[in-house]
Fold each of these.
Amino acid sequence: MHKVTETTHSMDKIVSLCKRRGFIFQSSEIYGGLASAWDYGPLGVELKQNVKAAWWRSMVHNRDDMVGLDSGILMHPQIWKASGHTENFHDVLVDCKKCKNRFREDHIENNKCPNCGASDFTDGRAFNLMFKTHFGAVADEASEAYLRPETAQGIFVNFQNVIDATSRKLPFGIAQIGKAFRNEVTTGNFTFRMREFEQMEIEYFIKPDDADECHKQWIDQRLQWYLDLGIKKENLKIREHGKEELAHYAKGCSDIEYNFPFGWSELEGIANRADYDLKQHSQFSGKDLKYQDKVTNERYFPYVIEPSGGVDRATLAFLIDAYHEEEVEGKTRVILKFSKQLAPIKVAVLPLLKSNNDIVTLSKKIKQDLQQSFTCMYNDTAAIGKLYRRQDEVGTFFCVTVDVQSLEDKQVTVRDRDTMAQERIPLDNLKKYLIDKLSN
Amino acid sequence: MHKVTETTHSMDKIVSLCKRRGFIFQSSEIYGGLASAWDYGPLGVELKQNVKAAWWRSMVHNRDDMVGLDSGILMHPQIWKASGHTENFHDVLVDCKKCKNRFREDHIENNKCPNCGASDFTDGRAFNLMFKTHFGAVADEASEAYLRPETAQGIFVNFQNVIDATSRKLPFGIAQIGKAFRNEVTTGNFTFRMREFEQMEIEYFIKPDDADECHKQWIDQRLQWYLDLGIKKENLKIREHGKEELAHYAKGCSDIEYNFPFGWSELEGIANRADYDLKQHSQFSGKDLKYQDKVTNERYFPYVIEPSGGVDRATLAFLIDAYHEEEVEGKTRVILKFSKQLAPIKVAVLPLLKSNNDIVTLSKKIKQDLQQSFTCMYNDTAAIGKLYRRQDEVGTFFCVTVDVQSLEDKQVTVRDRDTMAQERIPLDNLKKYLIDKLSN
């Protein structure tokens, strides 16, 4: 019926589509933009919310061994001393003495400035990647504070609170979604590496003996999550970290990588952090954060498996993976083939004639009814062929078209995004038809 | 059947319940806490998510005239010059020369230090309430940046992007939920006034002539939202700002106030901001942000109605309003009477005997099945009477109890939170029974 041309698509096409259709805008664009910062537009915010909701549903609600948490971006500065971020979370930077530009020392090849070619640099200087600010106005309270560089530490410092409030026994996990900030020197690749970004992190607490097996299971489970939401298998791979890449306390780490147009890159890291964090916070806070087994009366620091994913990276991967071009009647049809869970709009209701008041009224009434069950939009800003293409381009699952005949036979045309097949459905049955289609 | 004793409850009771049951923890507690900062625990994060989802559903998805947005916390610093925050968003502070404590000048009564009673102060000094940081590491890029003190400006600077991407016509609104930060001198009252907090804001763009009528409508609609989610009518009121309270550009503002234990206080402000923001950003960015009416070809700056609510304040009000104490058989029963939409857990599945493997297995199976439709928990950590009380205390709508008889007759006991009435329901019908009860 229509020929599928699986062309390789560039990031440019994705970036352009994102701006044009309201997925992602450049931050502060009217002021010339802010480097490596991006805003989510009307469709982007829906897509990102769907990604987060899918993660929360499968990682928290649909499991028996998980609870959620939402800790602050600003926390006590001592936390970052305990975690090691104050001392170790930095890049070494050098300035070119000739052109005065600043670079990461490990990015200077052959001792030549990448900007002007000179080879005279200042000594390397450690540049901490945490954003610093000051908390409190009253003198004795005022203190340096940091925007958290990861959400994980908010979980560790609440470990005892969660146990006290929920009576949880090992193994169990705490999940959190929230913003994190890193003043990266090297940014870029659209929303892949931003200074302000969103994480979805789990700290899963277990007996030390169970750590290796549990680590393997989490790698499998997290990979499966991306597959279940529609990412093509061939675009995902697991990469185990070499010894030299591991943090000194980590027993192992594997990344889930996605085949981005700019190369295979990390979507999520799944690390065995051993008992490093709880031990550090016990030492720095003076509070004993050991777990007490109420049956055996043993007290010990649990090991921790940490699946740590990026919301923005996942959203970008879902966007890229969903992008398809097809040739239909000599023209290119662009489709975002989002899964049912992720599509920002499930159903668009389109009047065939916007000059016909009865059709418009009926269309709006249908939208009002359907929106109780799923995200819908009404659109009458173009002719039907164009409206279909526009909905395909943003991944809308079904288009419902209301025409003159609908006023008489109380039926509407339902068009499928992927097959473009059209079916005539009685209005009485429309909602149930769509619910069935969208829920299986 | 049971006597309702509507005792006046103090904030202490709420704060204590919140910590004990995992709604809200003090931030960084193991390090001695961080002033006026709080973390949401396992139940708190669910409650807050439900508040945000309810707002998004009724303000975005269930309307035809709204779209969403999610802009960054860090934006171009010029934005805060245009909005007036750099120059005007400050408190005037003085230091006591004797005890060195710092105070808001307008909080010093009779020129006596509230701390030591001395009456010798430094001159007043403007203290900007925006948290400042530095963005970027490379020299020519490094610049002062601020944590946004409101989400609203992220909407205004994306006004043109949204119009271009969505072809929206007036009237329409843009909604956003996200963190904002204010380095308040005076904080307190639990989560009511925090330095890091979450806003849910709408900027609704209209023809200038329609502003007054539209403002009234939004006040009614926003009040209704709190009522629909279960806040008692007598605990809400509208307070219109006096002329002297209004920002110089505002044409009017009304607050929705809630009767907190510490007094009537603002939940949400609904302001008529006129055309101030779009005009300012046009001037400061050099980009013309006028709206073009495609029918009449008029170009003008729309007026803006801004319903601006606090997520944390709303969550706190819902918690307080839900809190009830009843006397049952000589004992006090604490119940959080959350509405169906807001209850963090809809159904708890409880085995009557946790020593009976068949009962435990069946209970967990029931939970697994029900959790596909709503948030559930399994709990076997106490005797049934205690488990019921614990579920009442966190507002769980229904308890499903599995007993020995359930293994034979395939029926379970469903207990209603508010009436404590118990009904025997066949397992085959359980899910449908609960869906019906929870969806009307």
Note: Chain B touches chain A through 95 residues (CB under 8 Å).
Amino acid sequence: MKTILGKFRYFAVPAFLILFLPCAADEGMWTFDNPPLKPLREKYGFDAGQEWLDHVRLASVRFMDGGSGSFVSPNGLVLTNHHVAVGQLQKMSTAEKDFVSVGFYAAKPEDESPCPDLEVNVLVSMEDVTARVRSAVSDKMNAEQALRAREAEIAAIENECQEKTGLKPEVVRLYHGGEYWLYRYKKYTDIRLVMAPERMAAYYGGDSDNFTFPRYDLDMAFFRVYENGQPVRPEAWLKWNAAGAGEEDLVFVSGHPGSTDRLYTLAQLEYQRDLQYPMILKYIGRRIDILHEYMKAGPEQHRRGLIQLFGLENSKKALSGEYLGLLDPSLFVKKKTEEDALRKTVASKPEWKKAYSGAWKNIEKAVARQRERARHNFYRRVIGSRLYSTANQIAFYTAETVKPESERLDGYHASQLEELKFHLFSPAPVYKDLEEANLAGCLKLSLEELGPDDPFLKLVLNGRTPEAAAADLIRGTGLESVEMRKRLIEGGRAAVDTCRDPLVVLARKLEPTVREGIQWRKKNVESVMSAGTEQIAQAVFAAYGKDQYPDATFTLRLSYGAVRGYPMNGTLAPCKTTLYGLYDRALSFDRKGDFEPPARFWDRLDSLNLATPVNFVSTCDIIGGNSGSPVLNRSGELVGLVFDGNIESLVGRFVYDDAKNRTVAVHSAYIIEALRKLYDASGLADEIEGK
Amino acid sequence: MKTILGKFRYFAVPAFLILFLPCAADEGMWTFDNPPLKPLREKYGFDAGQEWLDHVRLASVRFMDGGSGSFVSPNGLVLTNHHVAVGQLQKMSTAEKDFVSVGFYAAKPEDESPCPDLEVNVLVSMEDVTARVRSAVSDKMNAEQALRAREAEIAAIENECQEKTGLKPEVVRLYHGGEYWLYRYKKYTDIRLVMAPERMAAYYGGDSDNFTFPRYDLDMAFFRVYENGQPVRPEAWLKWNAAGAGEEDLVFVSGHPGSTDRLYTLAQLEYQRDLQYPMILKYIGRRIDILHEYMKAGPEQHRRGLIQLFGLENSKKALSGEYLGLLDPSLFVKKKTEEDALRKTVASKPEWKKAYSGAWKNIEKAVARQRERARHNFYRRVIGSRLYSTANQIAFYTAETVKPESERLDGYHASQLEELKFHLFSPAPVYKDLEEANLAGCLKLSLEELGPDDPFLKLVLNGRTPEAAAADLIRGTGLESVEMRKRLIEGGRAAVDTCRDPLVVLARKLEPTVREGIQWRKKNVESVMSAGTEQIAQAVFAAYGKDQYPDATFTLRLSYGAVRGYPMNGTLAPCKTTLYGLYDRALSFDRKGDFEPPARFWDRLDSLNLATPVNFVSTCDIIGGNSGSPVLNRSGELVGLVFDGNIESLVGRFVYDDAKNRTVAVHSAYIIEALRKLYDASGLADEIEGK
């Protein structure tokens, strides 16, 4: 099993706990094997038949970078967000031609632009393997042995699947161990960019407007999926509905929420509040400072740093919102009430009490251990450099892949190697000056936090300043060469052990420390917590049945809700915005900064229908990773494109509140209006409208 | 002295305490005798000369209904808010012709429409009379005697002034007794309506958008002031500047803030939080329910109730915001820090300690007394009926005016009678069905709160249900007749005593109770508190000097600040909005309810310049009563028209925070664009633009 956390829109905070909220309101990110049929029927009079569900599932696409999308034509056209595509846009760009800022449109198939290292997946089938995974564990094992046995069994299931079906396997741990499912994916790696607007149209309002509503963003991008050099004919694709959805209409979101922590125990929540969030926010703040400094140097540096900066600012805003939620005492009151209720229920039956009641105490103990090493674990890392990660992965690859399957670390099982190498050998450009600035800054932060006598820092710095160490390491490495990476992987451990590249040497030296950290964590934290959360999951199933949805795991989920405004800042936010509002916001800020749309918006103002809806909100329950998900109507037609949540939704990592939590989407009508009237892309509009 | 609290936009909560905040930021509602010269010079490099100040003062107008305005042409044209004018608009309207909903424009002088009972004032001169008022009080008097002596002296000053100058006198208690000033006003009562747009243009967004920003309201109305049948030639009037003010420009507001409570002692604030606000909010909520029920009956009932409903909803929103501020523990922390600092300073000098340190304890005692009777004082009143107020005033008039000046209640001194009669004899329509509904509902509330055995209720209801009592009283009264009111006043006490009109009989019966209440309050609360606050005021002058502004008293004040957006709901609010935004908001709500502008906005859409700024915000410090104030630039030109504060400004009753507190104004350009292109009122536009 590979734990893939949606990395997009946030820095993943590990999710360990199960959900046992009574699902009132439009709450929930439901798996396709357990869709919310009952509330849909009772609240909305809607019956989601198996055909409807299969169609939606097969038209949904996962972006392995972090993000979601959907097929929107029979010719493999995929719609997602600009901000999901923007990493690829940057990789395609150069100082001379910056597709991020000017946009891209291939009117003819031959102009479609291959992406350096993009992978998308379609969920083909799912199988419950809980019994098989459980059978690997015996009562005689301690928590650590049990964890190892489970991991080995999962690796075996995944390897078997790949050999038999050729599909990409993923054993998913749902309900934090309550269930294990084998998900089989069709994997595509020949993805070509078809169309993306300018970033200033997609990300209109910038960091200020990010995670807020009312909003006016054209946050879209189109890719085409190829197989064997031809556009793929997907099993399912979504019909376009340019009329969109009206107020109070039932809508759905099908996508890949990254992670939620809706039912951390109180002990885990306190850990997040007291340690994890303050540390991460400090780290992100520093990274932003480093980038601002770097980007000052000139326009090319600005271009190179911009997308990283976006990611960091985005994370900062999201995490700050989540952190504010944690600081609100009412959240803890709510959580405590729920936890107390469950524990009381568990205590009410002797067999439940025996089987489950120890879980909370055990998790509390594991959290206590976690606290001990929290700061060390955070700052004793070489962070900020992609090249160092590459060196580290090469070192581990050569060490792990010679071991028998059952002894390998997760990430290095046979079935995972193809994907690992796809990323390891990515030809995407590496900006060494940016790498150096990031590495120096992050080492400096570690030095401030740990002091010069820390053994980790002594090893890394070796008497040098952070700046000098970063310069030596980054300027001295040759790992920007894909050829060199391939040579090392092919040469195996011997090649790594004799390599004199400074980053490879450092990775080798740090390997024992890293391994010790992983083992320590597995033994003292992960094994205990996963046993505890699994017990709680079983307690919940026993007590409340399976009218539950699991915490998000970057796997396909179905959310539902109504198109609806909400109370905001003393007044009402409407359920949608229009093009009039885009111009209002531009002129309200005197067309300054992030509030100046691209020139074509002014040049073609007269040709636009300003009443066109631009963005709209619904009560659907989503989180980072859902970016790019389609919004669907009852007929399974596409009426919108998810690109954000409102500021009130950020606390949604921990609790969902349908009074204010909203999904923000691009309206289907705006996409058509923009393609036809702003971007001269009628060919593309015709394709998605089936004309 | 008459205590005139701005009643507009809120239910007045008595203000007793002085302000001794260090005035950083753009804080303060400054008197024209003590303008903020220092911060203006230091922060904005602006020197407000005496000429500039006199000009602004003489161009400023007070609406005695509650509200502000300014002369904007040499021919007596006055600009104010639609919501300041709306009471008069309703009084002019009938079931057949509703000027509130369709608007009004007199293109020719002869079409200008006289107002039934509107009075406006211009502040002609000011004189410090502190020494004279103080001299009336001797050390041998107790607090109650001192209060009475001061009141008698003030009445004498006011009477003298009126006799000598013919001007309207008002002795104003500033700094809660730190100073007394005689303000002399030129009074006008022949006021004619020139222009008002439809309410849906003025109050676009309705109660939802009230007290919020971004905003798109044309909240304006034009009157012309007449004297001797001719348009008055005002001493000063404001030049129009249709370019308006840009971001960060220095601007001023000259107007009449009603009341603030910026430096209540902690004891007083707790009283407000624990008793006053919950009671008032409950009462207003009930009044709103009564009105909704009444207005359901038909379109004419809807028309009759609408403006009262507006006032109540407006108060509810304002008071709710203030109450939320009081419930925020950080407000009390801030207030406690300030109070502790002042008390420590006072304690540091023996002479200060002796003179002032007892004040807080005395106020605390008075508050304790106030608490005892709070609920009784609130519910033992006949409220909700204008006709009952009239009866009550007639009874008191005939009793008070036969007494010597020094023994009369405030409101019945010789210099106050003209104005009292102006309102008492107003020919404005009275809707008896609405009076009855209100009276019945309010009696019902008192019954719920006090129970059937309460002596007040026994007296009022006399065995009847609230509904039956209200029906008897309102249907049986003839007081809607101005003639009858005149006859009673002219007939004196004998006429009142023999009158068998049920409302007059009730007023007569309740008179002893009302008098007892007034005396009890004077003796136990007012006299002690006013002595205490006066001591604190003197302590502040001693400790901090006079770089202070007094709490608002519905007298002319100058505020200053910059045109500036603010952080809002996770993003930025711009400093202005445009016409594009009005259409966006309309279409965002599918043109429903309060978000549908009048038809002319659609009919003439093509002719409008949608980039026209509509509303804008500044850091100027204002509160209810400032409605209709001009916004001025450095040259004293009119660049805007104050009509609201943002939701973040509501806590401004207690504290000012320049990070978020904003004044919301109509942009001068929108007024011109609307007059010329929407309302075919180019004549009026020419007049104010001096063309």
Note: Residues 37-119+189-261+551-689 of chain A form a domain with the Thrombin, subunit H fold (CATH 2.40.10.120).
Amino acid sequence: MKKIGFIGLGHMGNPIATNLVKAGHQVTVYDVVPEAINALTAQGAQPANTIAEICKDSDVVFTMVQTGEQVSSLCRGDEGIFKHISKDALLIDCSSIDITDSRSLHTEAESLGIAMIDAPVSGGVAGAKAATLTIMIGGSEENYNRAKPLLKQMGKTIIHAGAAGNGQAAKICNNMILGISMIAVCEGFNLAKQLGLDTKKLFDISSKASGQCWSMTSYAPVPGLVESSPANNGFKPGFSASMMLKDLLLSQRAAQTNNAPTPLGAEATALYELFVNQGNGDIDFSGIIKFIEGS
Amino acid sequence: MKKIGFIGLGHMGNPIATNLVKAGHQVTVYDVVPEAINALTAQGAQPANTIAEICKDSDVVFTMVQTGEQVSSLCRGDEGIFKHISKDALLIDCSSIDITDSRSLHTEAESLGIAMIDAPVSGGVAGAKAATLTIMIGGSEENYNRAKPLLKQMGKTIIHAGAAGNGQAAKICNNMILGISMIAVCEGFNLAKQLGLDTKKLFDISSKASGQCWSMTSYAPVPGLVESSPANNGFKPGFSASMMLKDLLLSQRAAQTNNAPTPLGAEATALYELFVNQGNGDIDFSGIIKFIEGS
Amino acid sequence: MKKIGFIGLGHMGNPIATNLVKAGHQVTVYDVVPEAINALTAQGAQPANTIAEICKDSDVVFTMVQTGEQVSSLCRGDEGIFKHISKDALLIDCSSIDITDSRSLHTEAESLGIAMIDAPVSGGVAGAKAATLTIMIGGSEENYNRAKPLLKQMGKTIIHAGAAGNGQAAKICNNMILGISMIAVCEGFNLAKQLGLDTKKLFDISSKASGQCWSMTSYAPVPGLVESSPANNGFKPGFSASMMLKDLLLSQRAAQTNNAPTPLGAEATALYELFVNQGNGDIDFSGIIKFIEGS
Amino acid sequence: MKKIGFIGLGHMGNPIATNLVKAGHQVTVYDVVPEAINALTAQGAQPANTIAEICKDSDVVFTMVQTGEQVSSLCRGDEGIFKHISKDALLIDCSSIDITDSRSLHTEAESLGIAMIDAPVSGGVAGAKAATLTIMIGGSEENYNRAKPLLKQMGKTIIHAGAAGNGQAAKICNNMILGISMIAVCEGFNLAKQLGLDTKKLFDISSKASGQCWSMTSYAPVPGLVESSPANNGFKPGFSASMMLKDLLLSQRAAQTNNAPTPLGAEATALYELFVNQGNGDIDFSGIIKFIEGS
């Protein structure tokens, strides 16, 4: 049993914190939305009114918010985590944020003698509920090992991606490839259809050939091919187009800051942005096939 | 044992025809390059001087050339296959050509009572030599079944993709997805490197995650990850960048003719064209990572 | 006064042929749609039932249709123009078609001793009505000079772009640059708006700076900047998005056939195709700003 | 005569500060590179060792550096401009930097009662020397009017683009359109060449038609068309490819932060990044035609 402080109880934070409560930990929770706190106290968590209360006596403090600016404002300042967290505690940032922001926080934490890892997750709300998330860790081997038993109660695959910020790096590199290959599959499936080639036939061929990719064989964007695909469920996410866009934008910021040309990553980002701006942000990201098809 | 006429003895035609000779068939061969004919007669094939000779008494006539124009000129006219092939024979076009050209030839063949299939192959020179090609068939079920035993002596995976031209359609849809996903992997690997994330680490993570694709897990474009990758062999093809460009150009022609938008397919085509025009056509197509890296 | 045969009486052919009638020529007309013929006979043209009638005694024969296939079927075969046109006449193809198709027709015409030019037009229906078209000519200097007085009655700017097919080449090169720069202006205007920079201010600055282009200064895609812009008229064309897409597709076919990489041309084509496929083909091509804005 | 402090004496800062000295102002200068200071003192400027010295008694303080981080570190902290500048003075940031960074500095300056404008310039080293720069101002009307007489001694066109940060916004919107249209012209010129259409002929046609743009008519990327073009001078800049890339990257950061899709802007950025990474950063930005041509 650990004493855990948890900040950020949204779509992802809620089920993760719930799992930690269920695992028997003493969890103190905070969010800017009071209802979000209430939802967790109903599960057995303790409410907190300030970051200082979250930090007090906690062995581990989690943050799970939307942006680097939010993590920064939670960590920094007189009311922040860096000021109030115990020197014996571990700070785990599960947010998906800009890698430069993440590394800046790591550097400051290290200079203050605070143990920290970045630990962005993938797997969506369903994965958070089922505790089957993939969690990618950036930080020291030692801190990775400290966190691992706890993270195992939140996810299935816990991977040490390297030094500070590398959890973020791994997530955005993977998801950039994912976003591109999903559009590639949509283009290929639509082209096949227009050419009079049955989609199922292309699926059967490419699944076992050089066009194989997870977007096709585990998440096919047309109904009837892969049972668990959102395509069979009206493109209800799953992993929403707006979440994919967020990760693609992070990949582009990282790429542009680090002199790494990503011509297809850039184009995939633009296409998801056009798609989301047309009002499709809440659709599963595989629903971009409708945009490609013009349907 | 079949009597086979074989036209087109280049990089691909040579090993395929050789395998047919070795399988015990009586093979008559033709090419515009005399040396190409000699290379086959040295293996036991019979030389022919005209298409009429190729067709005479043949149970099966193969064509394996570069462009739709070439197949058309072989088939049409007073000296062509359509005029000289037996009504009992089967015409198998193994060339990778424009789908409209292919269907036009099918239509004409059918009107003349000539049995024909399109049967483009993938697997490269190595696959042709080892008789491990994947062969995608367009044409009637009946003609597919007639061809299958023979094609089994040339390749490992023989697939009926549907009606006339669908062999071509399947190949270009698959290879368009392949070309895009290869560049996606190159972008992701280079971005990881620039972010200080070890390529091997990203490989380990993404191979089992949503970024997984054949270009990564079976053909990784950096050394040391997948043993059989051309990256371990100085990017010696394998499947050359210029052959990938040819297939991408075919995909774009098909897409544009059939009102199927392929924004990433178009961009991948342009990138391969820029890469090939800089003198890299003979490098394996995974070598485009050098272009992305700027190395 | 010339005796003129005119084939193809659609949106463009109708006003052009009408202008030729008004200029005092004896015009015989043909179209597959009887109503289209009637519309011209009401203006004083003579109807024809066959291409042979069109060609008989004509000094000049015009074709103004949609595709290279259509021009080819008008020209070739026993009922075609090549068979029936007088050796003293001039054939003027005003259609915008694939450059390879155009050159193939030129070659055949030349071998038959028939004088021919390609003369695609730009300026839209409004330009056709007002006889202010820009007409780009491909063919010999001699044939250009023969055609010029007549073309001056249809358009304002008559340009000799060079040898056979170069009229087509000039049009698609120009229009590819146009399509790209229009999207560039839309992206720039929308970015300015999102950044809180008044569009009018950006217009004032860039109009006199290095971002200046015709798409901005003569055809601005937002209301209130350029009086004649379709943006001031609900994006009523003008030059429709589907006509722009047609020209972009021609540019891509030419580029891909001739080993000329056009990464931005390819992307602009894909964007117009996505836009048109969403049902916007009849909107002016500058209306793509709605697609960029997500409005 | 004004008392001026000037920080940042690189390629651009040097000639601008020199012009201010020549105009009779009392200029105190600072740079991290001692030689850069010496070069200005040789022109009659006074050297300073600290920002405090620069600010002391100055009516105007200029900053002309590379990045938002640099401007921030010059302005903030105990040794910074915000601490030492007179409340009666005007701070003019001529750097081209991220718009968010610029606005953050404006906000802080305003809260401290410091008058500030952003005033990025375009026109390159040649324009800086000749005092013909275009200078785009963001800030209050009042501060714009205060700065204008001085800026008139540095540039020819002084434009008020609106509130804080809008100088930056105007520059990057303009230059994004510029970068895209330059590549568009390169693609069009190369396509023309491959089609056998003389570049000069396309230039003559498009210069007066809908493909017209500054990149073509004032800065044509092939020799012999526009006398002042770097193409006539071996692509010696002018405006270097790396400076264009910097502005495109700024445009992409702004676009992505502000939910403004720029598919062609993104692609142009990737192309310039590939071009620069191949070692072409010091070539004029119009030299990207070599990349498109594959020469």
Note: Chain C touches chain A at residues 263, 267, 274, 277-279, 291-294 (CB under 8 Å).
